[in-house]
Amino acid sequence: MITPAGIYLHIPFCATRCHYCNFATGGYDEQTAEHYVAALRREIESATGRWPEMTRQIETIYFGGGTPTTLRVDQLASLLEECRRHFEINAGVEITVEANPGSVNREYLTDLRGTGANRLSFGVQSFDDRELAMIGRSHQGIEARQAVEMARAAGFENISLDLIAGLPEQEMATWQRNLAGLFELAPEHLSVYLLELYRDAPLQHRIERGELQAIDDELTVAMYYELVDAAGRHGYDQYELSNWSRPGFESRHNLKYWTGAPYWAFGISAAGYSGSSRWSNTRNINHYLELIERGESPVADNSILSDDERQSEAIFLRLRLREGVDLREHQQRYGVDIAVRYQEELDRLHEAGLIELDESTLRISRAGKVLANEVFAAFI
Ligand code: SF4
Question: Which of 165, 189, 209, 240 has the lowest tally of Cβ within 10 angstroms?
């Protein structure tokens, strides 16, 4: 049976740049946005010819960025229309749009719902105005609450909220208030990430100059466990290391990434996967526009994965999920007996309390969740 694919569309515009951001995004201007939407449509149009081995059957579409809601609704609708023209979109498709609180109003959200978009993912990050200003977000805490209320009124029944834990100078008390703010809004889905700063992030420079104090790892770990326990008390399932949902509201699109399903990808920096090869587009918007204009491929990297790379990737992606790795299924699919091939690594991780292993399943343990990269490294 063919596994239906997802489609990712990257919208690289933001009102301002957050002080920790490493995504391919820049300032919004109307003319560039018009050109970019036209280019995306051309890329969608030519994609099925470019990747003939990929399924055209689609069950998720995801607008990420950047801030997709910097575009007008009719621009987002035209992109959906282009997808409908060139792919077979399943009934019940999940269509997610990432949005920033403060970038949307009731009318916009109502029109967006009218396009068929049925899931919103708001980048809340914190409810604390001091923290929001420190990390350069363009909204205030109250706007996150208003955005969720407006989204509900517009008919969205599937809302995800993002938070960041481990911000400089963050205290447990502020973190607990952020969690309380989150649960009060009763979203269907939560994504919570630990702050990771790249070398040239403005926030990293402020820490290096001594203007801000990074918090220690112990406190960050305590914040993660505070979240894990609070989310459980509020009825959310932790179905992935950084993601929680009400039953039935897991991100179907992101599950494609973790379960080795195929996904198409359009726009700058977007990365796709066919089941055997992985590719990503150029990150430079001018280069992207030129290539599309000339009718050329915007792909900058394309690698074909060996069987061994695919099986090792399958282990660490599945380890992110609550279900873990089904040992028998893995052996049937890749011909690798994990217990034999990785015996030494498994003994070491088990002794350190980072994994749980029985005859049928390998899972990451509660202690392993905060040292996940160490666990994954054992299988690479
Ligand atoms: S809104 Fe998101 S993509 Fe845009 S600058 Fe902030 S972190 Fe980066």
Answer: 209
